[in-house]
Amino acid sequence: xxxxxADPQRPPVVAAVADVRARIARARAAGRSIALVPTMGALHAxxxxxxxxxxxxxxxxxxxxxxxxxxxxxxxDFHNYPRTLERDLDVCRETGVDLxxxxxxxxxxxxxxxxxxxxxxxxxxxxxxxxxxxFEGVCTVVAKLFCIVAPDVAYFGRKDAQQAVVxxxxxxxxxxPARIEVCPIVREPDGLAxxxxxxxxxxxxxxxxxxxxxxLKTGEWLLHQGETSAGKTIAAMRxxxxxxxxxxxxxxxxxxxxxxxxxxxxxxxxxxxxxxxIGDVRLIDNLIVNVTG
Amino acid sequence: xxxxxADPQRPPVVAAVADVRARIARARAAGRSIALVPTMGALHAxxxxxxxxxxxxxxxxxxxxxxxxxxxxxxxDFHNYPRTLERDLDVCRETGVDLxxxxxxxxxxxxxxxxxxxxxxxxxxxxxxxxxxxFEGVCTVVAKLFCIVAPDVAYFGRKDAQQAVVxxxxxxxxxxPARIEVCPIVREPDGLAxxxxxxxxxxxxxxxxxxxxxxLKTGEWLLHQGETSAGKTIAAMRxxxxxxxxxxxxxxxxxxxxxxxxxxxxxxxxxxxxxxxIGDVRLIDNLIVNVTG
Lengths: 293, 293
Known about the structure:
The structure is a homodimer of 293-residue chains. The first copy, chain A, is 35% helix and 22% strand. Chain A is an alpha/beta fold and 293 residues long. Chain A has two domains: 13-183, Rossmann fold (3-Layer(aba) Sandwich); 196-291, Pantoate--beta-alanine Ligase, Chain: A,domain 2. In chain A, the strands form two sheets. In chain A, strands 1-4-3-2-6-7 form a six-stranded parallel beta sheet, with helices on both faces. A three-stranded antiparallel beta sheet of chain A has the order 8-9-10, with helices on one face. In chain A, α5 packs across α6 (161-174) and α7 runs antiparallel to α8 (230-242). The longest helix of chain A has 22 residues, at 203-224. The first copy, chain A, is globular and about 55 Å long. The relative contact order of chain A is 0.13. The interface between A and B is medium-sized, with 30 and 30 residues. β5 (115-119) of chain A pairs antiparallel with β5 (115-119) of chain B, so a sheet runs across the interface.
């Protein structure tokens, strides 16, 4: 069998800021707009959906792959975070990525780096109190990537809903000239939200992890049934999770998806959000629910 | 007498981010590079030297005039800070400014604005402890201006030496693609460093203010004479200031001009820096001294 065309090539992988800027300048000179998909690698179908969405608009798609230490707490899983660069590059090839930016730490954080960006109240709720410094690390690295890539548009996943809200606010407040697109959560067939951290779960813990989705669906069902108390809804969700030993609940909340403030009684578009820990694996998930009546 | 050419016109003054971006895009399309001179107005010969330096390179010069509230402490002089827009526009005309960006507060800080940028150790010395939050406000507003104007180069005065060091670090750390130029201090004939706040001094206080420069010159003289103790040099400088009643010293320091760390014994390029308060007027000044031997 003759292969009429070569397999699409893996995109070039560059490590230096100057190189990524030079290639982006060439793409811009050729009339392309620039789309950025910031990732920490360990790419799964959720990331692939972002990369495909970015490619669909005809933009020159830059995927960054960088496990950012400043968004991990000292007791968190920076060192155990999955790193799968070879497979990631296959995902990038399959989704039409034009350029992969995979910098070493020294390229992102120069010696004596000491500049940090924080967003206020939006970063202090939900995951905020459970991950001190996390959103500061996220904002800082995303701002660096925006300064390096100067994208017209950047894509984030709704699984990290608070991150998306915080980044939108940073971009608005600092007047960063980029559009933020937030893409839907991609789930496993049984409902588990795709996460790079799922790879760190044993089969037994994988079953427990699903309880978070089941708890959120319980909350959604109750609200659709006409339950008007956020407290009662959350209590029912907690009961779903309480059935599993060795599963710690960081929070379960019903919030306004834009302001992240608690809503009680829930009304209109609400986000039911939760975070759990199974051993040292922390998982988050959320559902947007429209509550009528 | 016939006027062969019309007087140069005052540059256009725009208040909206979208307008300033549109005009800058036209200048870029015409092949101009973009220079930014961020100011709080009340322009004096020091500002004029920055504006002239910016114009000399042939760039399209954007002067911003905005008294930024987030860099003032609650007990500071935000409300009393001199505002002289009409005269400022004459200075802009005379120095060849192409565009003045004079935004209202709501354009720089949208409702619920909550994003802040801080630089670490470099902002925590010298003026830092005396003006909590000051450099965070400076970094935040300068980053906003950089995101709005996207300058190739931005000009700052060396009178605000720590500000220049902090902004250089922010720009380096965040990978902001702008060059920072720092221009020499412009002084009155008697040596007083030009400052918008000088306008707030009575004639009597103006005489006291000069003592800061005299103290710095005393320090410079001692170091050139071979004094090797930073402590003794600073004590002599303090004695110069002690001669004036109602003059409070925030600090007198001899530091490395890049790291802002104390140097003792002083050697090589040193910065002698000081800050005083006369009533509610706070003044700063510095000298760069090369200490040999």
